[in-house]
């Protein structure tokens, strides 16, 4: 498989296996490695800032309070980003505590950045490196159960994210990802030109997921064990690209590569780059 036909390499949360997830160090290192796409997650603060974070709270696994104290699993939901202004969010550290599932991750001080900061920094850094502009996969962390508790309702959430994408002028290089079909349905109506990806992690047939969505998205993003030759063939017949996640082991990478996805999302882009 040549580099030309090799799937796009999506650095999951930057490169979670190597640097603290969803932080500037992770995105910068992913760019140095040579990823094609930076994958990241966004939530909303109390003052309506778009914050790069997988959870809408401070995870006990990787974050510390502004006083440097660990956060316990029982209290992490009390550190709700939707109830904190960004100036306070910025005071927490989410880089010094190594993620227990990623022993190769190099710890360093890091905060949860704003989406606008990540986009600005990544555009500038890619230019400094003399590499082509990177693409972005931005996951909107929305669910019906979280409405008005951990995030705004879909239309309001989406408007805040789209404003940042537009301001950074990266819309043509951005795909919007979401498990919440409501978000994608609103996006389809408001910005039909934007690339959209439906994320899936259950065993419900793809036909059913697409029927519920009501349109064919540009991309279908399934948890990689769900990807079969039959699913790959079905999606190709529909004209839908597929990007499985999160593929970290070499044997899994080789199995997925054989099905010729449009891209592969991984915590270890260095491993996938070595295969390319």
UniProtKB/TrEMBL annotation:
<dbReference type="InterPro" id="IPR030395">
    <property type="entry name" value="GP_PDE_dom"/>
</dbReference>
<dbReference type="GO" id="GO:0008081">
    <property type="term" value="F:phosphoric diester hydrolase activity"/>
</dbReference>
<dbReference type="Pfam" id="PF03009">
    <property type="entry name" value="GDPD"/>
</dbReference>
<dbReference type="InterPro" id="IPR017946">
    <property type="entry name" value="PLC-like_Pdiesterase_TIM-brl"/>
</dbReference>
<dbReference type="GO" id="GO:0006629">
    <property type="term" value="P:lipid metabolic process"/>
</dbReference>
<protein>
    <submittedName>
        <fullName>Glycerophosphodiester phosphodiesterase</fullName>
    </submittedName>
</protein>
<feature type="domain" description="GP-PDE">
    <location>
        <begin position="7"/>
        <end position="276"/>
    </location>
</feature>
């Amino acid at each position: 498989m040549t580099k030309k036909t090799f799937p796009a390499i999506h650095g999951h949360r930057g490169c979670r296996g190597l640097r603290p997830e969803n932080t500037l160090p992770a995105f910068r290192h992913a760019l140095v490695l040579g990823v094609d796409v930076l994958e990241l997650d966004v939530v909303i603060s109390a003052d309506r800032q778009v914050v790069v974070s997988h959870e809408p709270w401070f995870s006990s696994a990787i974050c510390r309070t502004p006083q440097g104290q660990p956060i316990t699993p029982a209290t992490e939901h009390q550190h709700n980003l939707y109830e904190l202004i960004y100036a306070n969010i910025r005071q927490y550290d989410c880089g010094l505590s190594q993620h227990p599932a990623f022993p190769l991750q190099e710890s360093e001080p890091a905060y949860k950045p704003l989406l606008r900061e990540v986009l600005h920094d990544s555009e500038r850094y890619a230019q400094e490196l003399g590499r082509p502009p990177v693409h972005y996969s931005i996951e909107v962390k929305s669910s019906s159960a979280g409405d008005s508790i951990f995030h705004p309702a879909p239309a309001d959430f989406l408007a805040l994210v789209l404003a940042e994408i537009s301001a950074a002028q990266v819309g043509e290089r951005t795909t919007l990802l979401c498990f919440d079909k409501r978000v994608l349905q609103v996006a389809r109506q408001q910005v039909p030109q934007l690339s959209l990806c439906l994320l899936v992690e259950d065993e419900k047939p793809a036909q059913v997921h697409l029927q519920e969505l009501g349109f064919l998205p540009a991309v279908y993003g399934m948890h990689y064990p769900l990807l079969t030759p039959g699913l790959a063939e079905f999606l190709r017949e529909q004209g839908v690209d597929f990007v499985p996640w999160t593929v970290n082991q070499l044997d899994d990478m080789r199995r997925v590569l054989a099905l010729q996805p449009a891209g592969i999302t991984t915590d270890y882009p260095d491993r996938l780059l070595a295969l390319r």
